[in-house]
């Protein structure tokens, strides 16, 4: 019997009890505020919105293409780019907006607009008091290195050549700031920058703001746009990027496959609207999923490589499960961080095995980076968005490009989109893993919504 599930939804809180004659202190355990997802928005290599991205993902398509002549001579010649002409930026932003915003910020703002629309949340119709209860937690893993390089080049031609917007465009918290200013949200304004775990940390932190009573609604996620020659060169020097599939770009990102040789850079943004359950009910919002738990850990091992025993990843998963108050055997899907690196994928698979033990064969695992590449700081949030829609629609997204599963990967990998549960009334519970350079780890626990 799972005792954890019954007790972990309650959080101890010391309160002052006042009687007629004396004061004394007692401890009560009020029900914890529940956090649900009521909206999602995305700008990805797969599509300009959630629906297009989700449909192409389920169809097993890849958005990875060959880079242009700018990248000639670099070992890696592939990436998952968003063609700028596809976005029609002038329909979303004024000329002054575009001067102020980096591409990553633009992506995040566009994804937020879609998420708010899908959540049927209209900031212009809300009172000042309501806007004060809506916060923003949008991060960025790293700023645009090409912006730094180009500005340095301009400085060589003279001080006045440096744009007055150079610094504001670079700051990692500016996506968060622009979302807040665009819609008048005056709740918590918090930006996360934890490398490739940024998006997952942003969602988890946002959940805690709602649980803690700091906000009723949080706009959560991340934006990233770092595909430029300098960034590609830097990651190549780290030997992190795929170089063996330059002539077949759509096959370059292959999580868990025996021929994987590195990740493929991607760009984009994904945003979730998180909401306190009763607040969502009062406005008759459609609930896509519930965010049950959040776990964090540090590897304390190496700047880029996880420890061989996978301790950090396992700790993050265990802490998310404990925070969610569910039992191991209730979780039947893990959306893996798996970036298509030889070491990282294997260690994460071992960590999943160690966490779930005898239940591991019943847990389905997929990694979607084969389709959209690795969006760095915007990967955890995009993949969390896919988990939300998997929970809501009872469909598991596939891991593409697996021609031969690595013999050291013993988890149950999903290779084609499939029905999650044959009984659609059963609560579907999943983990989403996200890990970053510096040994920072995050795991989120989502479920289909159940009263």
Note down, in words, how this protein is organized:
With 451 residues, the chain is α/β, with parallel strands linked by helices. Helix content is 33%, strand content 20%. The chain is built from 16 helices and 17 strands. The protein has helices at 3-7, 50-58, 84-87, 95-100, 103-118, 128-131, 145-157, 166-170, 174-183, 198-211, 229-237, 277-282, 311-324, 342-356, 369-372, 379-393; strands at 13-18, 23-28, 35-43, 65-66, 78-79, 134-139, 189-190, 217-224, 268-276, 289-298, 331-335, 364-366, 395-396, 412-413, 418-419, 429-436, 440-447. The strands form 4 sheets. An 11-stranded mixed sheet has the order 7-6-8-9-3-10-17-16-11-12-14, with helices on both faces. It has a two-stranded antiparallel ribbon with strand order 1-2. Strands 4-5 form a two-stranded antiparallel ribbon. A hairpin with a 3-residue loop joins strand 16 and strand 17. The longest helix has 16 residues, at 103-118. 51% of the residues are buried.
């Amino acid at each position: 019997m799972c005792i954890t599930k019954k007790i972990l939804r309650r959080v101890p809180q010391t309160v002052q009890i006042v009687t007629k004659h004396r004061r004394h202190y007692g401890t009560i355990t009020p029900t914890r505020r529940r956090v649900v997802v009521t909206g999602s928005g995305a700008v990805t290599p797969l599509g300009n919105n959630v629906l297009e991205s989700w449909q192409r993902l389920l169809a097993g398509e890849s958005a990875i293409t060959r880079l242009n002549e700018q990248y000639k001579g670099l070992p890696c010649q592939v990436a998952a780019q968003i063609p700028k002409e596809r976005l029609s930026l002038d329909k979303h932003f004024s000329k002054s907006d575009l001067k102020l915003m980096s591409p990553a910020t633009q992506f995040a703002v566009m994804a937020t607009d879609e998420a708010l629309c899908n959540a049927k949340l209209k900031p212009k119709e809300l009172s000042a008091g309501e806007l004060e209860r809506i916060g923003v937690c949008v991060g960025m893993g790293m700023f645009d290195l090409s912006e730094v390089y180009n500005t340095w080049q301009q400085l060589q031609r003279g001080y006045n050549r440096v744009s007055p917007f150079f610094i504001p465009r670079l700051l990692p918290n500016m996506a968060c700031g622009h979302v807040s200013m665009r819609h008048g949200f005056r709740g918590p304004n918090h930006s996360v920058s934890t490398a490739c775990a940024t998006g997952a940390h942003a969602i988890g932190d946002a959940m805690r703001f709602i649980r803690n009573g700091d906000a009723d609604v949080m706009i959560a996620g991340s934006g990233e746009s770092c595909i430029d020659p300098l960034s590609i060169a830097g990651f190549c020097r780290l030997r992190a990027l795929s170089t063996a599939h330059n002539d077949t770009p759509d096959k370059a990102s292959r999580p868990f496959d025996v021929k994987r040789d590195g990740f493929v850079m991607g760009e984009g943004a994904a945003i979730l609207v998180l909401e306190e359950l009763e607040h969502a009910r009062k406005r008759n919002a459609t609930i896509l999923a519930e965010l049950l738990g959040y776990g964090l850990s540090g590897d304390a091992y190496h700047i880029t490589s996880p420890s061989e025993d996978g301790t950090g990843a396992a700790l993050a998963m265990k802490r998310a499960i404990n925070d969610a108050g569910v039992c191991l055997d209730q979780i039947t899907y893990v959306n893996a961080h798996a970036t298509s690196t030889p070491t990282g994928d294997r260690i994460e698979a071992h960590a999943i095995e160690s966490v779930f033990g005898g239940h591991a064969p019943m847990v389905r695992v997929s990694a979607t980076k084969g389709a959209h590449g690795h969006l760095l700081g915007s990967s955890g949030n995009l993949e969390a968005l896919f988990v939300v829609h998997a929970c809501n629609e009872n469909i598991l997204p596939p891991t593409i490009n697996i021609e031969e599963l690595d013999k050291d990967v013993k988890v149950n990998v999903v290779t084609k989109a499939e029905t999650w549960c044959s009984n659609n009334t059963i609560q579907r519970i999943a983990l989403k893993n996200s890990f970053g350079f510096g040994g920072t780890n995050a795991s989120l626990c989502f479920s289909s919504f159940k009263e």
